[in-house]
Amino acid sequence: MHAMQADKEHHFDEFAGEKEHQFQGSGRNLIIRTYEDFMQNAIGGVVTRASKDLARWATEVPKDWHGCQTVELGSGCGLVSSALLRMGAHIVATDLAEILPHLEYNISLNAYSGCDEWHVQALNWDSSSDRAALRSKLGSSGADAIFAANCVYTRDTVGMFLKTLKALSGPDTLALMCGVPVPPAMLQDGETSIVDAFLSACPRFFDSYLLEVPGSLEDDEDEPRESKYSPLALQLARPHGLRVSATWT
């Protein structure tokens, strides 16, 4: 009993406390700090693998984010938003109202003194008033870019998520999502996986592409990375009529 309790406490300790994440951005090392608190904020208090991958993509892709108006959905610990802020973007980090104190503290860890190019805002995807309030703040052109990591967990949330993306987007908005649950090995007859439900719905709202995230956190950083098409992306894209784009890897 005591051993089990110790193991459980050790497990939760992995998702508690302040941590640093290192990225290569704009020709310099970028250190982003986060404070994780799983016990208090559940999944919103944890930096997920998808958040790290998306933050890495945002910092290493050859794009200048300086001055861009960006929105992050389901920000949690705000890793992606914090990285964008340090790259010069104007950020709006969103999550449910109960997560905002945790989110605001995390972004404050990475904001320069006197920086006023960021704020946090409550956003319930099922609330038309929440969507309208944020869209009003963004202006007629909407966000320049919208980011989301590990935001869709059930088929029921796919429609709400895509409606929120559309409500915040303009004709030139770039929306980037990373992390959808891997389909189970066996599906019941007639059951649709979350990833299939998501991919089949996307083209009804946007021009959609599947991208390969730059490398992997376990990849050998000394190995040269080249732009290439992902075989997995091709496999996922075909049944849903999606296009696949080579990415900066």
TrEMBL record:
Gene Ontology molecular function, alphabetical: methyltransferase activity
Gene3D superfamilies: Vaccinia Virus protein VP39 (3.40.50.150)
Record key words, sorted: Methyltransferase, Transferase
SUPFAM superfamilies linked: S-adenosyl-L-methionine-dependent methyltransferases
Organism: Cladocopium goreaui
Claim: Transmembrane helix is one of the keywords in the record: no
Name of the protein this chain belongs to: Protein-lysine methyltransferase METTL21E (Methyltransferase-like protein 21E)
Keyword NADP: no
Pfam families with a match to the protein in the record: Methyltransf_16
PANTHER family according to UniProt: HEPATOCELLULAR CARCINOMA-ASSOCIATED ANTIGEN (PTHR14614), PROTEIN-LYSINE METHYLTRANSFERASE C42C1.13 (PTHR14614:SF132)
GO biological process, one term: methylation
